[in-house]
Amino acid sequence: LERLLPALCAKLRDHQFSSDGNRVLLSCTSYFxxxxxxxxxxxxxxxxxGLAREMELVLEASHVYLMNRAEDGTxxxxxxxxxxxxxxxxDDAIGKNFYDLLHADLADHIRxxxxxxxxxxxxxxxxxxxxxxxxxxxxxxxxxxxxxFESPDTGVTSVxxxxxxxxxxxEASEHTHALLDRFRDLQxxxxxxxxxxxxxxxxxxxxxx
Length: 209
Fold this sequence. Notes:
Radius of gyration: 27 Å
Structural class: alpha+beta
Strand order of the largest sheet: 5-4-8-7-6
Order of helices and strands: HEEEHEEHHHEEEHEE
């Protein structure tokens, strides 16, 4: 019993789980008699009312793009907006393999990024991705960050995707480039000389005239 109780207490200490939509934390300490002999355990149960429900509200009602994926790509948790970008509902998306929902080239690219994150080679990766709705013509452009998560309960690692929708920014950029191309064509047709400066590189471009 003296060896069993400490082992049991160590297993229960800071153990977390969900129950009826609430987050529960178990804390455990041993107590001893006057001679220092362990005679029992004190277990404290702390409940976080509504925390799981609050997360569910965020995933369902907000504009957050969030996804939690297992090492093999299986979707464990997903927000409504992320599911919609894949042409699915949240219920339909959970359990599906994220890689199978993407174009083969994009799936291979993300899989390679995931391997580096899960192996600890990189702590996080950030890039712009274009997700095309397989049921329509809509394309959602996302600024996506991938993070490695290790469960404190099981030690199992997974990937969290957190993204911002930059579709409007992308469309505005394309519109601006189209206007610039039209301006250049008009200037060249009119045989007018002009110059431009790249705001990023500060490089000056001179037309032929």
